[in-house]
Design brief:
The complex is a heterodimer of chains A (about 290) and B (about 130). Chain A is about 40% helix and about 20% strand. Chain A has about 290 residues and is an alpha/beta fold. In chain A, a hairpin with a 6-residue loop joins β9 and β10 (about 265). Chain B has about 130 residues and is α/β, with parallel strands linked by helices. In chain B, about 40% of the residues lie in helices and about 20% in strands. Chain B contains 5 helices and 5 strands, in the order βαβαβαβαβα. In chain B, strands 2-1-3-4-5 form a 5-stranded parallel beta sheet, with helices on both faces. In chain B, α3 links the parallel β3 and β4. Classes of the chains: A alpha/beta (about 290), B alpha/beta (about 130). The interface of A and B includes residues 77, 160, 165, 216 and 243 of A.
């Protein structure tokens, strides 16, 4: 891949998906796009770029998709799921007794392991949730991963990372070398295709948002913009869960961290510094007077 | 240092498992079959057992039954590691007192994840990209 090709891809990915690749991520592009080149029947990434420059919208879409998919597994990082079971749901069970409903959004649902982990956790809580309506909405930019997520079918490798064996036995059915999660669990998750750069206010208001390991790909402006819009679709006493290496600290004060719970945040009630529009990326404004 | 008993009739599998587990700071003892494994446990109870199913002399399932009846035999965390990937085998293993179950082929991510499940290894956070 030549430097001009790399620059072309960087700019295209930034424009199409907000993905912000720093200067040294050639290996990432190679690992994701070389297989795609083979699939498209071209010898290398340079040829892929040529087709994109010639206007092939299908190739452009496939490149964006290949670059924005992120590895995931069941109960990834464990701690957020412990927070979910031990803090988030118990607090919501108290706070929502009038409504008896809880709305959860997995904003980077990917191939489904995260929303299905939440669904299994909810099922494991059993009687505590009797009579409650819990909605899990899983969204992702990629239609391909959404289809996989909807199918709930996983390989032997995928069901062995992060999933305790007792849950495998309880919630999955074996189909040859593959494992499918039970229809009950699948029925608990709704899937929608969504680009986080676009308006998502039509999804409604949420009590819990899992937005893990997707914002890391965006530049600072984009992150701040998305945090601002996330705060607007969350209940004031709602919970935001970020990935292990992420934080809002230093970026925005529309969320405040739980001091003793790593990765957990709550809307602060503060207003975002800049007007929050979905389609116009905010320019870097001089933050006078702060 | 925690001790892991690796039980498998394949020396290749034992070598791979040893490499993975030594990187995870385990001291390794090897056994070729369930009978050897049982003798090793009578000498000193390991903290963990990585257990194959199908082996000559005594298989993993039979070994597990005997292990849990030994004094102190309830303490080792037993993780099956076998080509037997059917639900029936998994259920039988759990019922007989296994703590976790790995379906071969395995890699270090799976071993690490399963050893974390049973509390043998501290939680590690995966930092993406």
């Amino acid at each position: 891949m030549t430097p001009p090709d790399y620059e072309y891809l960087r700019k295209l990915l930034k424009d199409h998906s907000g993905l912000d690749l720093s200067a040294d991520k050639q290996y990432l592009i190679e690992s994701r796009l070389l297989p795609l080149s083979r699939k498209c029947g071209v010898p290398g990434i340079g040829d892929l770029v040529q087709k994109m420059k010639n206007g092939s919208s299908t190739i452009i879409a496939q490149v964006v998709e290949a670059m924005t998919t992120n590895e995931t597994f069941f109960f990834r990082d464990k701690i957020p799921f412990e927070h979910f079971r031990d803090s988030i749901i118990p607090e919501l069970l108290k706070a929502r007794t009038a409504r008896k409903s809880i709305r959860i959004w997995c904003a980077a649902g990917s191939t489904g392991q995260e929303p299905y982990s939440l669904a299994m956790s909810l099922k494991e809580m059993g009687a505590a949730l009797a009579g409650w309506r819990v909605e899990i909405i899983a969204t992702d930019l990629s239609q391909e991963v959404l289809e996989k997520s909807k199918s709930g079918i996983y390989s032997q490798f995928e069901v062995q990372r992060g999933l305790p064996i007792q849950l495998l036995v309880k919630y999955f059915k074996q189909n040859g070398e593959l494992w499918q999660i039970s229809p009950d669990i699948r029925a608990m998750v709704q899937h929608r295709q969504l680009n986080l750069l676009h308006d998502f206010s039509q999804l409604g208001v949420f009590d819990v948002v899992f937005c893990r390991n997707v914002l890391i790909y965006f530049d600072q402006e984009t992150k701040i913009n998305i945090f601002g819009r996330l705060a607007k679709v969350m209940e004031g006493d709602g919970f935001l869960v970020l990935g292990a290496a992420e934080t809002v600290v230093g970026l925005t004060d529309v969320f405040k961290p739980f001091p003793d719970k790593r990765g957990l945040y709550r809307p602060s009630g503060a207003r975002a510094a800049n007007p929050q529009s979905a389609t116009a990326m905010p320019r870097i404004a001089a933050l006078a007077g702060r | 240092m925690k001790k892991c008993l690796v039980v498998d009739d394949s020396s290749v599998v034992r070598k791979i498992a040893r490499r993975i587990l030594e990187e995870m700071d385990f001291e390794i003892i090897e056994a070729e079959n369930g009978a050897q494994a049982l003798e090793a446990c009578k000498v000193a109870m390991p903290d963990a057992v990585l257990l194959d199913w199908n082996m000559p002399v005594m298989d993993g399932y039979e070994f597990l039954g005997h292990l849990r009846l030994l004094p102190g035999g309830e303490t080792p965390r037993v993780v099956f590691c076998t080509t037997e990937n059917g639900m029936d085998h998994i259920s039988r293993a759990l019922y007989a007192g296994a703590n976790e179950y790995i379906m071969k082929p395995f890699d270090k991510d799976i071993v690490s994840a399963k050893f974390q499940e049973v509390g043998l290894v501290a939680l590690s956070e995966q930092i993406p990209i």
